[in-house]
DNA sequence: CTTGGAGTGTCAACAAGGCTGACGTACTGT
DNA sequence: ACAGTACGTCAGCCTTGTTGACACTCCAAG
């Protein structure tokens, strides 16, 4: 940040360094998804179900359109996942009060339980990584991730953070 | 940050903060893969082709088994991808010299060119993120990613780094 | 020299989860 | 009354992962 040198911060960004970052991102993301994937594999679910459950839990009562916007998939794709979750009693879909075209999505008790299992697994790993790396590293980690998102996604992420807490 | 105690700010890692990290990871990874995905979509290729090309470029002459180990997929899955790349003249497969059962994989000129296009796109984004976040943040970013990998994957990543430079 | 096992390729079948296109229904707002 | 929005669904396609089975080449040990 407030560094005395000029050239050295540019030297830091060699292609080799960048490639290491790219590969680290690839391997880390695999680790990041490995734990919930293992849990999901024991049921008839996949990552798509996890994502739906996660964001419904994050913003209970959210609409289908909103979820489509966050997840960036087609409604056909989301609907397939959502349908199985509703059939299995993990998600409830209620007709909107003000606008009856909309469906508001909520997790059932069972849905909340699964969400907790999945995100617990993920949090354990993230907490361990944070602990190993130290507080300063965590701040840097978050800063780089934010900068790596598309502007649109950052918007969605911010919206979630503001609305969520 | 402005805490009375130093390293123990780790105690402030609430579930909410961890969830923010999880979501940041999700959105950032989407951004991270978006650029090469766009290029690949214009051809008949997907992410699997990108991964194969990347790691063959990283370690020219690598064997199929080694690639299977790094990528963590089945040989049938890799073979399908590899076959199209060889047919399209992006990858060459040579019978091993010392052990003729092995196939040593190399990128052709055309393969190198595509690899460059793909990783350039990815590097541009990563470079921008690094620049926005600053050198200290980058160090932290890398530390957290390393800690987030599985031990096995870290081994593979280290092997690549040692052999690659 | 035979034989077990490793490295590789390939066929078949299947599943998850993306996609497009098309169509229908219910509802809203003008 | 009517155009547009929100949602669901059918049908079909693609990529990329999986298992299982089989064949071939080749190295190394008995």
From TrEMBL, chains A, B:
Annotated GO MF terms: DNA binding; DNA-binding transcription factor activity
An individual GO BP term: response to stress
Keywords: DNA-binding, Transcription, Transcription regulation
Organism: Cognatishimia activa
Full protein name: MarR family transcriptional regulator
Segment forming the signal sequence: none
Domain HTH marR-type: 15-150
């Amino acid at each position: 940040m407030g560094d005395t040198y000029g050239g050295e911060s540019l030297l830091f960004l060699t292609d080799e360094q960048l490639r290491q970052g790219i590969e680290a991102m690839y391997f880390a993301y695999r680790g990041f998804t490995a734990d919930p994937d293992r849990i999901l594999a024991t049921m008839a679910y996949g990552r798509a179900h996890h994502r739906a459950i996660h964001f419904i839990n994050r913003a209970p009562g959210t609409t289908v359109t909103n979820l489509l916007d966050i997840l960036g998939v087609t409604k056909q794709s989301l609907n397939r996942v959502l349908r199985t979750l509703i059939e299995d009693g993990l998600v409830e879909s209620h007709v909107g009060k003000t606008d009856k075209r909309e469906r508001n999505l909520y997790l059932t008790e069972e849905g909340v339980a699964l969400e907790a299992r999945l995100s617990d697994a993920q949090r354990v790993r993230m907490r361990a990584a944070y602990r190993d790396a130290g507080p300063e590293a965590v701040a840097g980690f978050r800063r780089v991730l934010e900068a790596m998102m598309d502007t649109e996604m950052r918007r969605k992420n911010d919206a979630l953070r503001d609305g969520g807490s």
